[in-house]
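Q: Fold this one first, please.
A: Sequence and structure below.
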Amino acid sequence: MRFRVPRGKTVIGLTGPIASGKSLALELFIKEGALGLSADAVSASLLTEPPCYNKILRKFSPGKILTNGKLDKKKLAAEIFGSPAKRKWLEALLHPRILRRIHSLITSSPKKITVVEAPLLFEAGLEECFTFTVCLSAPERTLRARALKRGWSAAQYLERARAQLPAEEKYARADLTLDNSGAPRELAEKIRFICRFLKETAQGKKT
């Protein structure tokens, strides 16, 4: 499933390898006035809704994915990252629903610029859903250090990284790559420039 960018709006697909700073970048875009949407957050909300929740319980052993009777997202993640077949099944269930929800949020918002954080943007073949794509980058040693600082083990980082496209391929496929190996203020300056450019371009079209 794909969706078309609503007329008069700019929809940016934001992605990057693990620990590249996608959440920070989304927050910075929001500060600049954009509508910020997280595919992961939309996915998390869908997981608790009956249509998805019930299908997931029938597919997975409740004892492996529930904690105190509630869906445990960490346990579910451990299940799917350990099995490519299970991961593909869950993606097939969630991805169409995620796209429909995101499209609805975009069309109902008055904001002209929307940024959608989608870690698996290229893996899911979603490039055509966006006006253009932005990929955050950083040296491998920096990405690994950030992941370990979050409390991940080296094995967890490698397992998650291998489940995605190589970082270099993401960089090559993106319309724009933003280096995020420095301080947050440096990334903020780059995002501020992008938003200012988009706003000025939109104003120029009206005059």
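Q: Good. Now the second chain.
A: Here it is, same layout.
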Amino acid sequence: MAHPLDNHPILRMNGAGNEILVLDLRGIGHVLAPEEARAIAATPGLRFDQLMALHDPLEADDDAYMRIYNVDGSLSGACGNGTRCVAYALAREGKERLSLATAAGRIETRREAETLFTVDMGRPRLHWREIPLAREADTRAVALDPPVDGAPAQFSAVGMGNPHAVFFVDDAEAIALEELGSKLEHHPLFPERANISFAQIVARDDILLRVWERGTGATKACGSAACATLVAAARSGFTDRRARVRLPGGDLHIEWRADDHVMMTGPVEFEFETRLTSELFEGAEA
């Protein structure tokens, strides 16, 4: 029997280097199981940082309901770079502005230029329970307890749909990201794991950033991490409320507006479109 997604199109894109797949499931009624997401990720050429699955909207004012998968099959609450890729994909239908619902809330997007999009990432979550952390803390400066060898002694915590831990360092390039990221993601302070960022303040409007994403690993870019980092930096007085955030895959421009919404502007790149096959899912195991 053919799989429901046999011969179904899927788009390969990137947002500032963040490897993204867009899978439009509107009108189908199929929800990807974690093992199906992992099977897609294991397909040559389709390895992703995030897979953006679009479903029929639950509210009349929305354009789609969006589920976001990490490469390990787990769900993510937000992905700014992936959302820009979705905005580009749906712009082909003539939609310059979008309202996309997610488990973490509604996301609005608008097209600025052919391949440049702005995403309203919403309000940051700053209370320790909302992020969440495992214990009460001033989220501007949380002691890393128990400590981790090689990691700074404290971090700033911000929720941007996902939990984020931002470590401010003198030299982001000198950090052993693979080693520290995997340890810190699973630190007992983070009951839902966390995205781990190492941020170097270059100027009050310029941040250098490297990110380890929960469920994915080291990544060339992470939009929600860029937003969380700007919020953390502004709260600590390191920057103003608008800055360029430089990641290995490209630059993002982040603004924490006076209305508390965080706006992210950045590029997208279309790579190719292909089709899924039933054979791709034959070895998928829960």
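Q: Anything worth noting on the second one?
A: The helical segments are 34-41, 80-91, 177-185, 223-235.
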